Amino acid sequence: MVYRFNFYPYSRPFKQPLKTHHGIWEKREGIIIQLADERGKNGWGEIAPLSWFGSETLQEALEFCRKLPQTLTLEDILEIPDNFPACQFGFESAVTYPKTRFLKETGFLSQGFETGFLRELKFSGLLPSGKAALQVFQTLFQQGFRTFKWKIAVYPISDELDMFKQLTKLILETIISETDKTEWVNLRLDANGGLSWEEANKWLSVCDEIKSDILKIEYLEQPLSVEQFAEMLALSQQYFTSIALDESVATLSQIRDCYQRGWRGIFVIKPCIVGSPRKLRKLCRENHIDAVFSSVFETAVGRRAALNLASELSHPKRAVGFGVEHW
Ligand SMILES: O=C(O)CCC(=O)C1=CC=C[C@@H](O)[C@@H]1C(=O)O
Ligand SMILES: [Mg+2]
Asked: Does residue 254 line the site of ligand 1, with CB under 6 A?
């Protein structure tokens, strides 16, 4: 199979800049790719780099695309190197092929595609850092979200612990006043690696003190830096509140490495930057990965491919972090 290849760089500002411990992120830049097969059928994919998570940079991805010939074979796509994970994802997502048998044999097909069953997903709503979370929570709750993620390690911990008290109080009051109390809320905290050892212990102690049937702190995401794996493994064995790795498992090789070093907690998987969907399927089938699939604020092109993978591979009880459109 030979494909005619075109690519279209894009740049789109977010409705609201995203403030995290990494800094302020104001626009999403990426590349939409088009693979037209010999029948003239178009396949679309998206390259959405997140270099501060460990993927290639946008410039490296553009350079990669520019150097490619106008026509590509499937072998060219299968040979995209592992240090271009966002390109691996984008090109593989764009592959179309008349014979589903071939896609099945090469692992391109998701099980859902084969059986036509793509599991219904629950979505998590993203709460902005700081006090703004209080207003946004109520809006998202009205929209039906019951899992929320709040960005922390942006303001001083004493301020954020106060805001946490206000947020958890608001959540409990909202559930009691607006539901028949049979529902509950999962709250995720995402530090983006920005806490100190002492602060991580403080947050986990505070979370462990929350004993409620209607509010669960689902996990603390990436409390410490990628270099502090051993410390996070120790924390995961010391507190009741779960820990999720995100920046530490941004690519396939990092997932393998953390799994081999004993991580059996939650893996936040960002499909658009993790690398080859075929290799991700294989990894998740061969190992017991408690996966939470997460957006990199890609466009609808990357989101569709990412959610297909999520419906196949994510843990059924875990909401996916694709809840809020950022455009
Ligand atoms: O995972 C989610 O709930 C939404 C996506 C999300 O939080 C992120 C996407 C991309 C970069 C980060 O700022 C952030 C994260 O750390 O998970
Ligand atoms: Mg995260």
From this structure: no
